[in-house]
Amino acid sequence: MRNLLQPSPYESDEGALIGRDPRKLTPADFAEAGVTLRPVMKAIRANCLECCGGTATEVRKCVSVRCPMWPMRMGRFPSALRAALCDEPEPDESDEEVPQ
């Protein structure tokens, strides 16, 4: 896993390790670190379980409703959300700021 980290280039971090930019990693970097891809819903569920201390009942009771993964925390994409998204016009991606 260490190959996924690098010393921070920011002075305020005082040389602490930070995650490398995944867009610049090679397939070999991921393989060496033992990273395996999961279907998106399983990855969201795993993240929610980690966030809630590994307890499924706490995931179910989650009150972090502003979390973008909250609707999918049960490992399924709710049909009501899908319907709501289909009714909305697509955002103009050229107006969205891409974080660096």
Let me know the largest β-sheet. Answer: 2 strands, antiparallel
User: What oligomeric state do the depicted chains represent?
Assistant: single chain
**Number of strand segments:** 2
**Low-confidence runs:** none
Distance between the termini: 23 Å
Q: Report helical residue fraction.
A: 25-40%
Number of helices: 4
Shape: elongated
Protein model, in words:
With 100 residues, this protein is mainly α. It has two domains: 2-33, no CATH class; 39-76, no CATH class. Helices cover 33% and strands 6% of the residues. It is built from four helices and two strands, in the order E-E-H-H-H-H. It has a two-stranded antiparallel sheet with strand order 1-2. The longest helix is centred in the middle third of the chain and has 12 residues, at 40-51. The two termini are 23 Å apart.
List the helices and strands and how they pair.
Blueprint: E1 5-7, E2 17-19, H1 27-33, H2 40-51, H3 56-60, H4 79-87
Antiparallel strand pairs: 1-2
Record keyword descriptors for this entry.
100 residues, mainly alpha, 2 domains, two-stranded antiparallel ribbon, 6% strand
Can you describe this structure in just a few lines?
This protein has four helices and two strands. It is mainly α and 100 residues long.
